[in-house]
Specification:
The complex is a heterodimer of chains A (about 400) and B (about 290).
Chain A lengths: L2 H23 L1 H5 L3 E7 L6 H20 L8 E7 L4 H15 L3 E4 L3 H14 L3 E3 L14 E3 L4 H14 L4 E7 L2 H13 L6 E8 L7 H8 L6 E4 L5 H11 L6 E3 L6 H7 L7 E5 L14 H15 L5 H20 L4 H9 L4 E2 L4 E2 L14 E7 L2 E4 L4
Helix pairs in contact in A: 3-12, 4-5, 6-7, 9-10, 12-13
Chain B lengths: L1 H31 L6 H17 L4 H24 L7 H22 L16 E3 L2 E3 L1 H23 L1 H11 L1 H6 L4 H27 L6 H15 L4 H22 L6 H13 L14
The chains are: A alpha/beta (about 400), B mainly alpha (about 290).
Chain lengths: ~400, ~290
């Protein structure tokens, strides 16, 4: 018997076998096809640090969900493509999801670039698209079929300003990185700062790879009436800013951004980090959350199942994907239907859904649905974090 | 006044680092006419290796010593495996080889070490010293002092020892140097080894201030190169003056004008020097290398 003949026979045998099993064991499942949910993520390439945990999260979650019996008695089929961080590829895959795979909803778009490239495809096809990318442009202006899960720079700014207002700090200095993250957050902070009655009296910047920020900080320090300083930035910059801040003994409250909400920041900044405040998602302080905290259960469960399946520490990015697919599944359950239009309407009506990233309440004018309470205000004390301020 | 002093301290510290990298450029350029763009990566190896050896439980001086030896080994390998086989190629080709080597070293560093930022504890405490209304970190004094000592040592080596003169002779005319009995191969290897050591020492000294990561060498190489160009490529004193000048201009520019253009200062300096003094501040008149 040749190899291929054997292969054909084997396939026929297993198909028969499977058919027999299906007929015998799961008659209802035959009647109902799986619900197809699409995903286009940057699981490889330069944005792999985003797409990789996101793709892993979706696979783990869908597998768990199917073991529990799926949704509306039907299994979920995840159709996942890797765009390698390339917006052109992302758009091609998006078209394939709509035309060939005929998905009812889509979770994905790891970067703002790939998301923006895919939006027209889903808007035209009228299929709901839940993005897991950062920029606020994705949901502003609101597009009827586009939603997103990650909180934005704007929310982080608002959280910081809220805390400042509560402490009576109204004249602040800003020192921002000139990388994408720092620039974008600075712009958002400038946009919302007036709403809190706070004025920015000094506005400095530094290069992403600078190793000394004392000149800029010295300028800020000598600004009359200064009460606090914010540092929108990512990477090692904020750690050096913090050290230089200590060296100049400025002594005023210093706020960092969610971009450095990790233990390694405290290690790098050293003793100068003591007393610094920053907004951070609940996932990063899962073990510190109070038992009464609404998010505690979902956050610890996600963390445990991800770390068990993958063997790596959980990241915020995977959390965005978890919330994305969870919102879609929840919308399908509420709509008791799988037509894209009905899923969209149910998504927009999401109320008080407790996710890993925050508590989502969407509306016709808000397709993100997160407020400042999705961030926790943390303070560095004795080389660790504590949660401060009222929520 | 206090503000000026603060900016001065900042500029001197950063400038001392640039000067050390520029010294490394100078030495290799003197011996081989090659501008070694992997110079910044020696700084990275010095810092990163010290961090990881110290984390493995070694005392800081021992870790630093082994890290410097490791950098020297990398420098010798760079010469033996990349520069030596291409002997006779044009300086431009050799410069490209060093850029390739730099990318390769960064790649290996990502695997051997990791992709995170790391820091070292300051050698003698981290309490800032107040001076005339401004503050300076004890570690900055280490960096500035280290730069002075290394410069003096290199200067004495090149001007007062037979081996140093052999380096200069090799640079001036390789064939003539060989004819008078200088082993040119050994001299070139020596230049790469010593350069790597200078870079690694700089790395150990600055890591407590600037932090370190596998790719931090690129920035140091660019600024150090600018410093060497401003001072006049091939002059140890020029390298030091160029480094300090660029450090000071960056600090004063960021403090008094705008921090937005801080990184542009070094490149503006290169352009000005190339336009008006193509040989740099210490380059002298018309020494034509043949």
């Amino acid at each position: 018997m040749t190899k291929s003949a054997f292969g054909r026979q084997f396939v026929r045998a297993s198909a028969l076998h499977a058919f027999a099993l299906a007929t015998l064991l799961s008659l209802p499942a035959l009647a109902a096809d799986p619900i197809k949910i699409g995903a286009v993520l940057s699981a490889s390439g330069p944005a792999a640090f985003l797409g990789d945990p996101e793709a892993k999260t979706l696979r783990i979650y869908v597998e768990e969900l199917n073991k529990k019996g799926g949704v509306l008695g039907r299994q979920i089929e995840l159709v996942l493509y890797d765009d390698g961080g390339d917006a052109n590829k992302a758009r091609t895959f998006a078209t394939r999801l709509i035309e060939d795979d005929k998905v009812v909803a889509m979770v994905g778009g790891s970067t703002t670039g790939t998301t923006m490239a895919m939006i027209p495809v889903f808007e035209d096809a009228k299929v709901p698209f839940v993005s897991v990318a950062g920029a606020i442009e994705i949901v502003e202006p609101v597009r009827s079929f586009v939603f997103k899960t990650p909180h934005t720079d704007k929310t982080a700014c608002e959280k910081i300003f809220e805390d400042m207002k509560a402490r009576g700090l109204t004249k602040i200095g800003m020192i921002s990185g000139t990388d994408g993250f720092g620039k974008s957050m600075r712009a958002q902070c400038l946009r919302v700062v007036k709403d809190y009655g706070i004025t920015i009296v000094a506005d400095e910047s530094y290069g992403a790879t600078d190793s000394d920020m004392t000149p800029q900080l010295n300028k800020i320090k000598n600004t009359a009436g200064l009460q606090a300083v914010v540092n929108p930035g990512f990477g090692q910059g904020p750690a050096i800013v913090t050290r230089n801040y200590g060296q100049l003994s400025i002594g005023l409250p210093l706020y960092q951004s969610h971009g450095v909400a990790s233990k390694s920041f405290i290690d790098l900044a050293g003793p100068a980090a003591e007393g610094i405040r920053l907004p951070a998602p609940a996932l990063l302080v899962a073990d510190k959350l109070a038992d009464a905290d609404k998010q505690k259960a979902v956050v610890t469960a996600y963390k445990a199942s991800y770390e068990k399946a993958v063997g790596q520490p959980v990241s915020t990015f995977g959390g965005y994907a978890f919330d994305g697919i969870q919102l879609v599944v929840e919308a399908i359950q509420r709509a008791k239907a799988t037509e894209p239009q009905k899923i969209r309407d149910a998504l927009e009506a999401t109320k008080g859904y407790v996710g890993v990233t925050g508590i989502y309440t969407m509306s016709a004018t808000d397709h993100l649905g997160l407020g400042t309470e999705s961030f926790r205000m943390l303070e560095v004390r004795n080389g660790g974090w504590i949660e401060v301020g009222a929520r | 006044m206090a503000e000026f002093l603060q900016l001065l301290f900042s500029g001197l510290t950063v400038g001392a680092v640039y000067a050390l990298v520029a010294l490394g450029f100078t030495l290799i350029y003197n011996a081989s006419d090659v501008i070694n763009f992997a110079q910044g990566d020696f700084v990275m190896i010095g810092g990163m290796a010290t961090v990881f050896l110290a984390a493995a439980g070694l005392s800081l001086p021992l870790a630093a010593f082994i890290a410097i030896l490791a950098a020297v080994a990398v420098g010798l390998l760079l010469h033996r495996l990349a520069i030596e086989p291409a002997r006779g190629a044009s300086p431009v080709a050799l410069i490209m080889i060093t850029i390739g080597a730099s990318i390769f070293i960064k790649g290996v560093a990502q695997i051997v070490f990791d992709k995170q930022f790391h820091s070292l504890p300051a050698f003698t405490g981290s309490d800032p010293i107040a001076l005339g209304g401004a503050t300076i970190l004890p570690q900055s004094l280490w960096v500035i002092g280290g730069a002075i000592v290394l410069f003096a040592a290199l200067y004495l080596f090149l001007e007062r020892t037979l081996l140093g003169k052999a380096v200069l002779a090799t640079a001036a005319n390789r064939l003539a140097a060989r004819l008078v009995g200088i082993n040119v191969k050994v001299i070139l290897a020596l230049a790469f080894g010593v350069s790597a050591a200078i870079g690694a020492i700089a790395g150990v000294l600055v890591t407590p201030i600037t932090l370190t990561r596998y790719d931090i060498g690129t920035l140091f190489a660019l600024k150090g190169f600018a410093a060497a160009m401003v001072g006049g490529m091939g002059h140890p004193l020029g390298a030091v003056v160029g480094g300090v000048l660029i450090g000071l201009m960056e600090a004063l520019g960021a403090g008094y004008i705008s921090s937005t253009y801080k990184d542009g200062v070094a490149f503006l300096a290169i352009l000005l020097v190339l336009f008006f003094m193509p040989r740099g501040l210490f380059g002298g008149g018309s020494v034509e290398r043949v």
